[in-house]
Amino acid sequence: MRVVSDTWADPIEEQQNSGESQQEPLTVVSNVEEDIGIRLVHALLTCAESIQRDELRLATLLIGEMRNGMMTRVNTGSGIGKVASYFIDALSQRLYQPSLGLGVMGLGSVPNDVLYYHFYEACPYLKFAHFTANQAILEAFEGHTSAHVIDFSLMHGLQWPALIQALALRPSGPPLLRLTAISSPSLSNGHNHFIHETGLRLAQLAQSINVKFSFRVVTISRLEDIKPWMVHTSPEEVVAINSILQLHRLLGSDIDSFLNSIRCLNPKIFTIVEQEANHNQPEFLLRFTEALHYYSAMFDSLEACQVEAAKPLIETYMQREICNIVCCEGSARVERHESLAKWHIRLSQAGFGPLRMGYNAFKQANMLLTLCSAEGYSVQESDGSLTLGWHNRPLFSASAWQVKVDKNSFVSVTHDGSSSSSSSS
Amino acid sequence: MKQKKKSKSSQFCINDQPDILVEVLKRLDGRSLGVASCVCRLWHSISKSDDSVWEYVCFRHVSSPPPPPSVRSLVRALGGYKRLFMVCVRPALCRVNRNKLSCRVWTRQGAQLLLSLFCVDYYEKLGANNNNNNNNNNNNNNNGITHSNSGTSSSLMFLCKPVNV
Predict the structure, then answer these.
(1) Which pLDDT does position A17 carry in this prediction?
(2) Interface test with A, best of B96, B98, B143 (most A CBs within 10 A)
(3) Are A352 and A271 in contact (CB under 8 A)?
(4) What is the pLDDT of residues B79-123, one digit of tens each?
(5) Are B22 and B53 in contact (CB under 8 A)?
(6) How many Å apart are CA A173 and CA A178, to the nearest integer?
(7) Which of A135, A150, A353, B119 could bond to A404 as cystine, CB 3.0-4.6 Å?
(8) Are A1 and A43 in contact (CB under 8 A)?
């Protein structure tokens, strides 16, 4: 895998050069796996480029060559072979059956939450996300006796036991904790049937360790329509808003009004964990190339995973993301990952400023990695945010934000949640 | 003469002094404590009922001052120190020692992380138990977490080496 990744330094150059190689017959001089791997990548990128240029016959030809030629000579159980097989499937789906979405490849059978759970269990990424966000939230809740968390990514609620426990052990005693879970088809948990059970379990846990806790669900059909009055915050409580791998889903629709509504809730902290990748470019080839690189690193890290039984499910989880990035367009494309730098700009424009993750969060993330079996993961800090990566390729970033208070303007929140601001200059 | 010696030495039996016994058992490492609990009924009951023995095993390696009393009630509510040791501390120590990273001294933060993981484990078991109760009434299992009735927590599997039970 590493040999192949060296050749990706200039993907644009390569696909220009590969224009000639399409004409040569694909005779392989040496049977070395890495050679096949490099050719496979060339072929994938050429195919993506031909799709972008609407040269569909050429694309079909390349897919055939890859499937019948190169893929038979490469090990599809691991490494570039495995990643390539998923991308070839995604490309062929884009060519042949774009309207069928995920169902055609049998990806629709396993519920998303089951896949998510195995992803949580076997890889450190989600644990990193939860613990880092929790640490930031814990620090923000310091000194308050009434706290409210608004969570857009409840799933099985695995993030919250650790926060409830940490609050229980606060020297000043636990605050009254309210958790509002947002349920919406726009979110990856979709129709979350077990959201109430999750709330019940969290309440049971909180009761066992003597933390006053209450749980509420807010169901909304379009996330952008969320308004502060739906969430019932009260002035004396401190509000934290949490989004783990959900925010990018709104980039296809009106994220600005969503961020504005969030801002009107006046949270003390807004924790965001996102994939550290640029999978939202309009140009197909750029998106494809980025995704190939990113998911190769992800699959690579998966090989180091100890929980064998979970691996196929995690692969399916990633396969769904790959398919969405490669096959879908418009409102169907929800996996619109953007890098932290881009989120920085977007959030700044929406009126948020970064909140530095403390050193405690960094230490905790490193400790979490120590307990994790595989070597190869690393946590890095940049500008107050933490990123978790595999062999120096950052894969997930965790950041915290607060509402910017501009000295020259004031924001007033009216009852219906709209905000008006006026500036003196 | 021999009988006299015997009667002198038989006047002291550690089992008659359970508080001293507890003090001794506290200073054992996990494995030795496990072995000790198999010696006789008294030792077994002490290691089972007096969770403070396991508390020392768990937090012996924490470098900073001993944890506050609120930790004790929390751990007891989540299943006890012995369970904390078995489920979290022991695999973590094995992992740290295997990696030959920092020595056997844990920081307070490491201990806090283990407590959090222990809490997640308790939460997952709640889910498993609730589902076992619900499954009798409801065949349609919406909660994707349940795997088996053994109640093994899956999220902590990354800590454990695969064990053939």
Answers:
(1) 45
(2) B143
(3) no
(4) 888 888 888 888 887 777 765 555 555 677 888 888 999 999 999
(5) yes
(6) 15
(7) A353
(8) no
Residue-wise pLDDT tens digits, A286-296: 999 999 999 99
Residue in the block written with tokens 């450190």: A124
Mutate to test the interface with A, among B116, B122, B155, B160 (most CBs of A within 10 A): B116
Answer whether residue B7 shows pLDDT above 70: no
Q: What is the pLDDT of residue B148?
A: 34
For chain A, residues with pLDDT lower than 70 are: 1-33, 98-108, 190-192, 372-373, 406-425
- For position A20, what pLDDT does the model report? 42
Average pLDDT score, chain B = 72
pLDDT, residue B94, reads 78
Q: Is B93 touching A (CB cutoff 8 A)? A: no
Dihedral sign, Cα of residue A362, residue A161, residue A175, residue A239: positive
At which residue do the structure tokens 């060339």 appear?
Answer: A42
> What H or E segment, with its residue span, contains residue B2?
helix B2-9
Residue with tokens 């080839």: A285
- Cβ contact, residue pair A162, B116, below 8 Å: yes
* Contacts of residue A338, Cβ cutoff 8 Å, sequence gap at least 6: A248, A251, A274, A277, A278, A279, A280, A346
What domains are there in chain A, each with its CATH number?
31-111+281-332 (no CATH), 118-278+337-423 (3.40.50.150)
Q: What is the pLDDT of residue B158?
A: 53
Q: In this complex, which of B95, B127, B158 lies closest to A122 when CB atoms are compared?
A: B158
What ipTM was reported for this prediction?
Answer: 0.81
B116 touches chain A (CB under 8 A): yes
